Predict the structure.
Amino acid sequence: MKLNIIGSYMPANDRQSNIELLRIVAMSMIVIGHFLYHGVTKENMPRFLYELLYTYCRDGVNLFFLISGFFRIKSTVKSVARLVFTVLFFECINYLLVYVAVGEVYFDGRLSTLFFPVSAGPYWFLQVYLALIICSPLINRGIDGLSLNKLRGFMLILSLFTFYSCGFGGNMSNPNGYSFLQGVYMYCVAAYLKKDNRLMSRLKGTKCIVVAFVMLTFGALMVYYYNKQTLTSYNGFINIITSTLIFTYFVNLDIKSKSVNIIASGALGCYLLQDGLFGHRYLYATINRVFTSEPLYCSLAYLTVQFISFWALSLLITMFVRPLFKLLDRNLVAPISKKLGDFVDKIPVG
C-alpha cells in the first residue's frame, strides 16, 4: 500500500470509491474536531451541542488506522520518503499562509520542522503512522503467521488489555490513544476483520451506523453529565467499537465515483494545512474570536466556510504538486531507494 492510506496521489480511477468516501468522512471528522477543540472551546457554544459534535468527530483517527490495517501498509523507502516530502512541502505552505495572513513569520521553535518535518512537527498522528510504516513488515508477518483461531485469541487478549488497562486505567503505554500502541491495535483489528469473513458478513448495513451513533450519543451524554472523558477517548471502548462499525459499513458499500476519488486525494493536505503552523498561529485564534463576538448561526456559517475552503485549497495544491511529486519519485526517491535496497542486500548474514 502506498501513501493512498491517508492521502493519495494515485489516479482517481484506480481507487475504491467506498474507501475514498470513508477517507473523506474520517478526515472531515478530524478537521471539525480540531476546529472545536482548538478554536471554538466549550465556553463559546451550548455545552451539550459541543460535546455531541466533538464526540461524533472523535472516530476519525481510528478510522484511518483501520483503513491501513485492512489494506496493509507495504513498507518501502519510497513510502517513507513520500510521507516525509509531503509533510515538508505542506509545512512550507503553512509558513507561506501565515505570512499572507499575518504579514510576518516567526521561526522560533518551529525551524526544526523543516529538518525533521514528521518527527519534530505538530502532527502526532503522522509520527505514529510513520512508525507503523517502518514496523509494518514485522506486524504483517506476525498477522499472516497466525491461524484465524490464534489471531482471534490474540485480538481478544489485546482488546481486553486496551479496553481495561489503557481505556479505563490510562496506563503509561497508551493513556489516551495518542500512541503507537493504539495505531497497532486498530491496525490489527482491521487485519483480523479482513480474515474473519463470517464476522465481516454480519457487520454490514445501516444497523452498523445506527448502533454507532447511539453509542456515540450515549458517550456524549456521559461526558456532559458525569465528565467521563475516558469513555470517548481514542482507546475507549465506545470509540473503538463505533469506529469499527462505521468502517465495516463503508467497506461493504458498493460505490463507484470519480468525483469522490478526486476529493479524497486532498485528505492528507487538508489535515496538514489546518493542523500545521497556520492553524495554530492564526486559524484557531480567529475561529475563537468569531465565536466569542458573533451569534451562533453566524459563527457556524463561518466554520462551514473554513471547512470547505480547506478542502478546496488542499485539492488545488494536491493537483498542482502531483507532477512535482512524480518528478521527485523518478529522479530522487526511486534512485535512493534502489541504492539503499542494494546496500541492504549486500549485508552479510549468518
